[in-house]
Design brief:
mainly alpha, about 95% helix, elongated
Length: about 90
């Protein structure tokens, strides 16, 4: 869980409170602000959840790549050179 997830949940909760308070007081403007804050909070929470998912999916791949470079430095340099030449040729249109 990251700060976006936590802050999003807190903003969503604050929006629910504000909407409920606006309903009790009969203040339509406060209710609308509460709904807006809920939407903002839910969006931030979804963003935080997506960041966590990407981190969980990508981190093992990065760890494997680091281990490959550590175990086989010359093969890694050769692979990097081949990929660099392929990229240059692709950008030049060959």
């Amino acid at each position: 869980m990251n700060t976006d997830t936590i802050n999003g949940a807190a903003t969503d909760f604050g929006g629910q409170v504000k909407q409920g308070l606006g309903a009790v007081l009969g203040d339509k403007s406060m209710q609308a602000e509460g709904k807006g804050e809920q939407l903002s909070g839910k969006t931030q929470k979804v963003f935080g959840d997506a960041k966590d998912s990407v981190d969980q999916a990508v981190r093992p791949l990065l760890d494997q790549a680091r281990q490959f470079v550590k175990d086989r430095p010359f093969a890694s340099a050769a692979l990097g050179g081949v990929l660099g030449l392929a990229l240059i040729n692709t950008l030049r249109g060959k």
